[in-house]
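Quick one from the shared queue. A colleague (R.T.) flagged LacI family DNA-binding transcriptional regulator as missing a structural entry in our internal table.

Convert sequence to structure tokens.
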Amino acid sequence: MVTVVDVAKKAGVSVATVSRVLNSNYMVTKEKRDKVLKAIDELGYVPKSTVRSEKTGDKKVIVVVAAAIIHEVIAGIQDFGEQHGYEIMISYHASQTKSSQPWSFLPKEQLGGLIILNMLFDEQELQELSDKVPVVQCSQYATIPNTYAVTVDDENATNHAVSHLIETGKRNIAFIGLGIDDGEGFVSPNFSKDRYIGYRRALEDNGIPYNPDLVKFGDYTYESGAQSARELMEQEIPLDGVFCVTDNLAVACINTFKEAGYRIPEDIAVCGFDNQEISEMTNPKLTTVDQPFYEIGYESMRMLESIIRGEISTGRRILIEHKLIKRGSTVS
């Protein structure tokens, strides 16, 4: 069966671009739109039409609660959901740590389940939700009893990325992670913790001493990444590589280092994580860990349906394979 992933590969674009073309989104250039339409025609791709629930003839609603709209993830969720008779509702929250439960207006029998996308729910709140309705955590996760989640292996992916920096000859490698003050305390998402563990393990595996002065934490913003880069330079300690837990932070580092007169990657190599579009919008382009977001979304919806149907009842975390995309920020 031809999927949107096949169309994206054939057209040489992202899954998000294919999704935008299919949904008549104006945020696609004519050149890319033509490539996608040509690939669809050559592959004979036909979007699956929504089917009805076998039992009731009514569509169950799946609510995706998201702090970040990742188009490829949403496309994967929608494709599987629509193929199996579910209506997908997106609920965006600017805050990563608070939820207003926008699904409360739905009749209890109509709510099929929740997919939590990059939200830092309080563990007690998440547990209470999981006791009432099927919940799958997508892309990042909180540890609660009997939890269901679909992510990449953040620890091993980071170990791979930092080991690449070491292979290029870098030894004094900084780590820039995430720590969020939610007003009630300092919260670090599990994926950032796992990536920190991967960073530490890569250093240890290669006999490089750990230096806590090379570890910084901030928020998701570009300015936070730039501030972390400035702090690293102001310390006047040896620095020749940086691993950042998001591409946004990494791009901020590249620009800040370059403004200070450093050459990338000769003086300081920089690596990010996510392979977002911004990773190709800097000079040099950013080396980064590619997360297969479409597959993460698709498998999250597949797992949720299995819970809804009673096919699984024991918590699990599915790890999706990553890929390291090597570009000019680490290799000349």
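The first strand starts at residue 60 and ends at 66.
Residues 154-290 form a domain with the Rossmann fold fold (CATH 3.40.50.2300).
Added to the table.
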